Amino acid sequence: MKYPFSKEATEYVKALGFSIQDLEKEEFKPILDRAEERVKEALLGKREVRRPLREEIEILSFPVSIIMTSAMNNQVVKRRFADFEAKRITEWLKEENCENLIKVAKSFNWRIRALRGENFALHFVDYLKNAVNFNEAKWKLVNRVLSNGEVRLSKNDVARLLEEEVRKYIENKLNVKLDIELPETLNERVEKLTQIASKEVKRFKLEETPKELNQEAFPPCIKNLYQSVTKGLRVSHIGRFTLTSFLLNIGLKPEEVIKLFTSSSDFNERITRYQVEHIAGARGSKTRYTSPKCSTLQTHRLCVNKDELCNKVRHPITYYRIKYRMLRKGKSEK
Ligand code: SF4
Fold this sequence. Notes:
By secondary structure, this protein is mainly alpha-helical. 55% of the residues lie in helices and 5% in strands. It has helices at residues 7-16, 29-44, 55-72, 75-95, 98-106, 124-131, 155-174, 184-199, 220-230, 237-249, 254-260, 269-279, 294-299, 316-333; strands at residues 112-115, 119-123, 146-147, 150-154.
């Protein structure tokens, strides 16, 4: 039952039938303490707890930590919490035997079966829904052994794919609108965590990407794609994906991105809308895609006209943030 997303764990929490107001009671303090600690660990990026953890408290503190993180209402914090919790779970998954690993995978409705020697066969659709978010070549379906619609995987591969599934599961929970009034005790803790988050601002760039769009700050690869699209030139699928995910990640609305593609010679509003909204996480798996990093763009020959700043970054979004700040600083100094 140690996995908070498992059927047993969710049924157990439901059966207890406690309400959010119950959290004010003294007997819930250890749960609140642990929930706060979980969020704090994610913010600081390190595990603070070295003592053995009580399974019951771990299970019960999970939904409470989700509430605390949601209440902080910051996308970066939410992403960080989902990543951190998913990574913690992967460590456990790697220690599991094949039978238990399959049990966990089945709680996400994966069509998976064990093969000999800690190997697995997973239906390619279940494989793709998570592997599609990984950039490394080894996750591309063409680089996998595929037999009768099943992908052959090692135990570590299954654990990594499950980590992605768990991350999405947590992100979805965090994005459900919080329509409840939090008790005072919880509000105080959320306030404390928000202060920690704002102190961590530099370390994990809580200060999200600038709100207003500045094309001058685009990295050369994006500038090239942007110009090609606005001139109506043909752009490859990965090029369109890169530009769309980049623009959505720096804050453009899906509608604004769709408008940009209207100059394409092969523009089809229905298909473009579907693709853009899918990348924005408004459809399908509800995953918001991040734009590819530099190494991926280099593999696809989309890294062009590199400049000096390019040598200092590994991601076009990092380039954009730095350049944006440099341009702003330049303007304010004039
Ligand atoms: S190094 Fe990165 S940011 Fe610069 S052009 Fe290449 S892909 Fe773009």
